[in-house]
Amino acid sequence: MSVVRGLPGFRWKGVPTLVYRPAGSGFKNIIRRVVLGEKEVDLPFQVRYFEMRRGGYSSLECHRHRHAVVVIRGRGKMFLKNRVHDLKPFDAVYIGKNVIHQFHQAGREPFGFLCMVAAKRDRPRLVTESKANRLRRGKGVRPYVRT
DSSP E strands: which ranges in 26-146? Predict the structure, then answer.
């Protein structure tokens, strides 16, 4: 059993800040913190905090595992199932198997959310440029489908 103490600025004691995908492209201005599930080896899931600074966005991806997200800071937009959804604190999102999704920061404040995911899971698959071009044809989604 453990207690991870919260700190100001959406940080937690003893939890390092990691660069989201240290190499590559298709994302911008995003960090992650593994709040629970890194040291707790018997925990079958992880609780991770992601934060996007101004203009930030995550990878356009899909995967076989499911996960849940709860927004706790700022405003964002999410491309999910061919639609763009506005997100604000305490909104919750369920992302099913193989569903293409991408998060974007919106507004002036950083956009932060907790993501609950299985500890043992498959690696995300990035969406190809040709698939992204097809997705961009949807009404109002073009700015929220980035590769």
Answer: 28-36, 45-57, 61-62, 67-73, 75-80, 83-87, 92-95, 101-106, 111-118, 125-126
